Amino acid sequence: MKKKAWILAIILLLAACSSEPKSTAPKEEPAPKTAETSPTEMNEEEKEEPVNEEVTSIEEEGTFNGLIDNNSIEVEAAGEILVLRLTDEVRDTVNRLKDGAKVNIVYKKNEEGQWLLEKIAEKSAPEAAPAKKLTYIVDGASIEEDAVLTESELNYHFYKLPDFEFTAEEPRKDLLFATKFAETFVRIEPLSEESSIDDLKEWANDELKAVGEVSEVGGKETAGPAFEKTSLFITASKDSYKKYIVIQDLNNGDKVKYTVNLPKHKNAVKWEQAIWAMLSTLQTK
């Protein structure tokens, strides 16, 4: 009887176990790890790459004012005064330039913050026309005449009116004279850089004293706007003769001396104004 009771207990226990519900929930897998960005890596990504500013060259037209020292020059460009340091490539060109020359320049700022001259070249003058009309005033009346381009072996040119002839005269002088009255003339003498203006002024005054009382006159008022800049403009006269000695300062810095002889003649007034008109066109090369 005890044996039957023990077997019955085992059967009931197995039945109880088989009746428990089985769990159908899927096994939860752990979430896969994602690649995390470290704070250091985030900071490096947020940093922007440094921008290398390219130093560009500047090209301008200007006026060469001269050397400041052995290593720098002064150029006026775009209304400003530029101080530019020289390189070996431009020294020879700079040494050939005259103060006041019109130039084309290329420059840029170097690593030390200095403006460095890369290139410099004198601007070539436009080719002169073979002829042009000149206008001048005689006794209140305007006279217009055709003038022809005339070149000198002394490296200058001007426009000559038909009443005049032009010839070379030694040493380093030329003569422009009236065809019908050769005593009316102007001696043209380009001056070198070594010329002493003080000595020339002294000699000019002594030369004119032989004619009469020496007077200094305004170049612009006497000969026109081209003679606004002069180192010397003096005259002396007597009843039958008038003479001028002029040192003109050209725009490119060159100086030219003129000795103008005007003896008494019916055309003296006209020829004087014609001479100033012709000399107003003179340019050195």
Structure description:
- The structure is a single chain.
- The protein is built from six helices and 16 strands.
- The strands form three sheets. It has a seven-stranded antiparallel β-sheet, sandwiched between helices.
- Helices cover 22% and strands 42% of the residues.
- With 285 residues, it is α+β, with helices and mostly antiparallel strands.
- A hairpin with a 2-residue loop joins β13 and β14.
Please write out the topology:
Layout: H1 2-18, H2 39-46, E1 58-69, E2 72-77, E3 80-85, H3 88-96, E4 102-109, E5 115-122, E6 131-138, E7 141-152, E8 156-160, E9 164-169, E10 173-178, E11 181-191, H4 197-209, E12 215-216, H5 219-223, E13 230-238, E14 241-249, E15 255-263, H6 268-279, E16 283-284
Antiparallel strand pairs: 1-2, 1-4, 2-3, 4-5, 6-7, 7-8, 8-16, 9-10, 10-11, 11-15, 12-13, 13-14, 14-15
